[in-house]
Amino acid sequence: MFCPQVNTIINNHVVLSNLDCDVDKVTVFIKQHSPAALLMTNIGSSLTYTLPTADLPKFDDLFRALNHNLTDLGISGFGVSDSTLDEVR
63-71, long-range: CB within 8 Å, 24+ apart, which pairs? Predict the structure, then answer.
């Protein structure tokens, strides 16, 4: 029987704060770095994307690109969180 580690990451979330962004443009940008990314919520001035753990090696490039393109994308900032199996139970 397979027992995952308690700290196994099952979800990675990037939360973007938008001032005046084109959601489709931001989504295309995110998917260039993480093709399986999914827009989970678009509420108020926040967009939340779920990124697959398999793309973890690409996150550094994604975050650098986001930081470099904040103004062009109409984003004021971004943050990252993850959910572990223990948190989901």
Answer: 65/29, 65/33, 66/14, 66/16, 66/29, 69/29
Q: pLDDT of 29-76, one tens digit each?
A: 999 999 988 888 888 888 888 888 888 888 889 989 999 998 899 888
CATH code of 39's domain: 3.30.70.250
One-letter amino acid of 59: F
Q: CB–CB of 50/3 below 8 Å? A: no
Domain that residue 42 falls in: 9-88
What pTM does this model have?
Answer: 0.75
